[in-house]
TrEMBL record:
<keyword id="KW-0408">Iron</keyword>
<keyword id="KW-1015">Disulfide bond</keyword>
<dbReference type="InterPro" id="IPR019793">
    <property type="entry name" value="Peroxidases_heam-ligand_BS"/>
</dbReference>
<comment type="function">
    <text>Removal of H(2)O(2), oxidation of toxic reductants, biosynthesis and degradation of lignin, suberization, auxin catabolism, response to environmental stresses such as wounding, pathogen attack and oxidative stress.</text>
</comment>
<feature type="binding site" description="axial binding residue">
    <location>
        <position position="192"/>
    </location>
    <ligand>
        <name>heme b</name>
    </ligand>
</feature>
<feature type="binding site">
    <location>
        <position position="69"/>
    </location>
    <ligand>
        <name>Ca(2+) 1</name>
    </ligand>
</feature>
<keyword id="KW-0560">Oxidoreductase</keyword>
<dbReference type="GO" id="GO:0020037">
    <property type="term" value="F:heme binding"/>
</dbReference>
<keyword id="KW-0325">Glycoprotein</keyword>
<feature type="active site" description="Proton acceptor">
    <location>
        <position position="65"/>
    </location>
</feature>
<feature type="binding site">
    <location>
        <position position="244"/>
    </location>
    <ligand>
        <name>Ca(2+) 2</name>
    </ligand>
</feature>
<protein>
    <recommendedName>
        <fullName>Peroxidase</fullName>
        <ecNumber>1.11.1.7</ecNumber>
    </recommendedName>
</protein>
<comment type="similarity">
    <text>Belongs to the peroxidase family. Classical plant (class III) peroxidase subfamily.</text>
</comment>
<feature type="binding site">
    <location>
        <position position="247"/>
    </location>
    <ligand>
        <name>Ca(2+) 2</name>
    </ligand>
</feature>
<dbReference type="GO" id="GO:0046872">
    <property type="term" value="F:metal ion binding"/>
</dbReference>
<keyword id="KW-0479">Metal-binding</keyword>
<feature type="domain" description="Plant heme peroxidase family profile">
    <location>
        <begin position="24"/>
        <end position="326"/>
    </location>
</feature>
Length: 328
């Protein structure tokens, strides 16, 4: 056979194999090219946790805010440039998402160990799993092989990400729009078992709920008094409160037992339990009564979320710097 024919035959034989794996993530994507990727990511996060107990929660949230906007493609990480309007300025993210410096540290460590190999989108997926497991939560096999976008979608970040006051019906619709169901809504909301929220995200519940001039009747009265002290009327709206008042930095099922005691922090949290007739109530109760059930569902739902329209194959690129499109 001529070299030319060999190439043609090789291409014909390989094409279906490539197509068969196209669009499919798998757990061993870096086995040959960056076998230590998970332990490298975990090491950087362990170091960061020593000076910032909140960083694990912040990193999990980044994966969520990446995946809901044009899929898990690292678009959230891009800064403004001549061709990019950053998603970091969109209302759900501005002065709120954090941990970008730790993502950069992870990228630097990976570029040193295996240059040009691990995508920023995959870094967010691996960092989310490492953050949960380092905080006492479940472990799971992270599916990998995502590539990075060369575009960002600032308007998409404003419209696709749920807001805490928009109501369970609208939030469920936003999850459904990316292929996630009501079990995913409840399980993934369980990420609010750690991390913080600013007073601005729940203060209407404390003083003037839905324009009634009164607090949200679904807030536990003892908890209400505590929150009113943390967030006084006309106080500093950037003051932080724990999303889980029981075990603020531990990944456990207390988020769900809190909801049963009416001590969910955000309106979107408490509604999962307090919306009468909602299918979410039974799911909250099952996660509250059995942490193993929650952990298994959470892991499954994180995999579902991580599968939202990734770029694979030769789409997109592997960014060298998570903040910038290559060559820009
Ligand atoms: C169900 C709809 C959701 C709404 C309305 C929502 C809303 C919020 C809000 C308002 C904050 C506080 C932000 C701030 O004050 O700066 C927050 C924090 C957080 N969210 Fe969500 N969220 C939702 C779902 C999720 C999901 C699916 C995840 C991850 C799987 C997640 C993970 C987190 C974490 C870990 C924090 C704390 C971050 C930190 O301390 O830096 N959230 N969320
Ligand atoms: C994982 O996916 C990549 C790219 O699609 C592929 O090359 C590799 O063979 C897959 N590995 C397994 C075990 O399926
Ligand atoms: C990979 O990690 C293992 C243990 O986690 C370590 O023994 C090995 O030296 C690491 N290899 C590289 C190339 O860093
Ligand atoms: C990014 O660019 C947008 C639009 O050009 C601008 O409104 C915004 O202030 C910029 N943000 C930052 C952080 O520079
Ligand atoms: C974000 O925080 C900075 C510094 O506190 C403030 O100047 C800016 O107005 C805030 N941006 C928004 C959109 O709230
Ligand atoms: C729910 O979404 C609809 C449109 O999709 C919007 O008109 C409505 O204002 C939203 N509700 C809340 C409470 O934000
Ligand atoms: C949601 O989807 C999962 C599979 O990802 C399935 O096991 C679960 O039963 C579904 N939940 C509902 C309420 O349909
Ligand atoms: C409560 O909010 C509504 C609008 O949302 C406003 O009209 C009303 O004046 C507020 N009431 C109090 C007591 O602040
Ligand atoms: C408001 O609270 C935030 C978070 O604690 C703090 O960083 C900021 O300096 C405070 N602002 C003022 C004006 O006190
Ligand atoms: C309010 O919260 C306290 C402590 O968190 C709990 O003991 C009590 O049962 C709760 N009350 C209601 C009505 O849920
Ligand atoms: C909790 O759930 C797990 C998995 O669903 C199950 O195997 C276990 O038996 C349950 N434990 C109890 C005490 O019901």
């Amino acid at each position: 056979m001529s070299p030319h024919l060999i190439l043609v035959v090789t291409a014909l034989v390989m094409a279906p194999l490539l197509r068969g794996s196209n669009g499919q993530l798998n757990a061993t994507f870096y086995a040959g090219t960056c076998p230590n990727v998970s332990s490298i990511v975990q090491g950087v996060i362990q170091t960061a946790l020593q000076s910032d107990t909140r960083i694990a929660a912040s990193l999990v949230r980044l994966h969520f805010h990446d995946c809901f906007v044009d899929g898990c493609d690292g678009s959230l990480l891009l800064d403004n440039s001549s061709s990019i309007v950053t998603e970091k300025d969109a209302p759900p993210n501005v002065n709120s998402t954090r941990g970008f410096d730790v993502v950069d540290n992870i990228k630097t460590a990976l570029e040193s160990a295996c240059p040009g190999v691990v995508s920023c989108a995959d870094i967010l997926a691996i960092a989310a799993e490492a953050s949960v497991s380092l905080s006492g939560g479940p472990t799971w096999n992270v599916l990998l092989g995502r590539r990075d976008s060369t575009t960002a979608n600032n308007a998409g970040a404003s419209s696709a990400l749920p807001a805490p006051s928009e109501g369970l019906t609208n939030i469920t619709a936003k999850f459904a729009a990316v292929g996630l169901n009501i079990t995913d809504v409840v399980a993934l909301s369980g990420a609010h078992t750690f991390g913080r929220a600013q007073c601005r995200t729940f203060i209407t519940r404390l003083y003037n709920f839905s324009g009634t001039g009164n607090p949200d009747p679904s807030v536990n009265t003892t908890y209400l008094a505590t929150l009113q002290q943390t967030c006084p009327q006309s106080g500093n709206l950037s003051t932080l409160a724990n999303l889980d008042p029981t075990t603020p930095d531990t990944f456990d099922s207390n988020y769900f037992t809190n909801l049963q005691s009416n001590t969910g922090l955000l309106q979107s949290d408490q509604e999962l339990f307090s919306t009468s007739g909602s299918a979410t109530i039974a799911i909250v109760n099952s996660f509250a009564s059995n942490q193993t059930t929650f952990f298994q569902s959470f892991a499954a739902s994180m995999i579902n979320m991580g599968n939202i329209s990734p770029l694979t194959g030769t789409s997109g690129e592997i960014r060298t710097d998570c903040k910038k499109v290559n060559g820009s």
